[in-house]
Amino acid sequence: MPGDAPVVYVVDDDAAARAAIQSLLHSVGLRAETFGSAQEFLACRREDAPACLVLDVRLPGVSGLDFQRDLAARKVAIPIIFITGHGDIPMSVEAMKAGAIEFLTKPFRGQVLLDAIHKAIERDRAARHEQSKTAELRQRVATLTPREREVMQLVISGLLNKQIAAEMRTSERTVKIHRGQVMRKMQAGSLPDLVRMAGTLGIPSRKY
């Protein structure tokens, strides 16, 4: 499928290091795009595909750790693998606490980097899959009428049709019709399915 082949972005101001990592990635069939600065990476058009970022800690202008924070502020969700020739424990702890996949100190074995990259790509692929499922659920919810949305919220709160009818001041038959429409439009096979969908979307149940 287009956009399904992963890509590894490499940001390092050392041209030789970029070339070495790119050669390593190509040797195992991974696509790589390299950049000499954080600004170059931000300016590029990134593909809609599973990806990760191999990021040098020490960069001209902005440090790798600062760039990690900048990406988070920009809502750019991409797994990061830090590489550095001058790392220390506090620096690595800060990076990992902020969500980095790995913090590698040069020189490191190529296989160690590859293992971290495969882990990062799989994490990104899983995150993208979850985002896709959530987007699809949002599209389903958008097809519900305001009345059906109200019924859905009452259903996931554990109320019976009779109780929902009393709450909405309507007939039980009408509730059954709305409930059936909710289940059909949400493509929910059971009440637990509907509850899980609501949880994914952050739709709260009511307290009774």
Written account of the structure:
- With 208 residues, the chain is of the alpha/beta class.
- Helices cover 56% and strands 12% of the residues.
- It is built from nine helices and five strands; from the N terminus they run E-H-E-H-E-H-E-H-E-H-H-H-H-H.
- The protein has a five-stranded parallel sheet with strand order 2-1-3-4-5, sandwiched between helices.
- Strand 3, helix 3 and strand 4 form a beta-alpha-beta unit.
- Helix 6 crosses helix 9.
- It is elongated, with a radius of gyration of 24 Å.
- It starts with 6 loop residues before the first strand and ends in a 7-residue tail after the last helix.
In short:
The protein has 208 residues and is α/β, with parallel strands linked by helices.
Mean pLDDT: 92
> What class, by secondary structure content?
alpha/beta
Instruction: Label the overall shape.
Output: elongated
Largest sheet: 5 strands, parallel
Helix coverage percent = 55-70%
Number of strands: 5
Strand percent estimate: 5-15%
Q: Using only CA atoms, what is the Rg?
A: 24 Å
Give the termini separation.
47 Å
Spatial arrangement of strands, main beta sheet: 2-1-3-4-5
Low-confidence stretches: none
Helix segment count?
9
